[in-house]
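Lecture notes, continued. The same structure-token format from the folding unit now serves as the input rather than the output. Read the line below as a description of shape only.
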């Protein structure tokens, strides 16, 4: 089974959206999960604004709960997609070897190869930021799904 992990900082705004979007594009033969590099929101529901923008696009992510990324995730997952440069550094700092490092990719590089563009953190902004993030992640997840099938 191919397993894909989405990673952001808090695991309440960007990565739960990415998880919900990618799940909607793949069959149940794929495992999709998300995690945060920080532990502030362990056990929390996604941010209300992420739940709302997902719902607007027909997805229910309200049952997801935050958890922190751990070193064991390198063993579990085949692909680890991070939202921004800071997430990338935090995950790479835990990598044990080249195989771990090779699993990690900036998610927008699927759309803009090698550009290392960030999915901006929408936490301190308004609803439009969540809509923008949704659209970026939708495009990237379409590429991921195409590449896997
Ligand atoms: P996320 O957004 O990394 O997309 O889940 C954030 C959520 C919470 C915080 C920062 C970013 N925070 O500082 O609590």
């Amino acid at each position: 089974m191919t397993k894909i992990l989405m990673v952001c900082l808090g695991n309440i705004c960007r990565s739960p959206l990415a998880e919900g979007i990618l799940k909607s594009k793949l069959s149940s033969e794929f495992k999709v999960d998300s995690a945060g590099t920080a532990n502030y929101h362990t056990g929390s529901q996604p941010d209300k604004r992420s739940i709302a923008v997902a719902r607007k696009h027909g997805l229910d992510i309200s049952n997801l709960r935050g958890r922190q990324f751990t070193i064991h995730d390198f063993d579990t997952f085949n692909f680890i997609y991070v939202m921004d440069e800071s997430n990338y550094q935090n995950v790479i700092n835990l990598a044990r070897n080249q195989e771990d490092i090779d699993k990690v990719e900036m998610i927008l590089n699927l759309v803009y190869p090698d550009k290392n563009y960030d999915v901006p953190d929408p936490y301190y902004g308004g609803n439009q930021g969540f809509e923008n993030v949704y659209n970026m992640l939708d495009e990237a997840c379409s590429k991921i799904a195409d590449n896997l099938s």
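Point for the exam: The longest strand covers residues 3-8.
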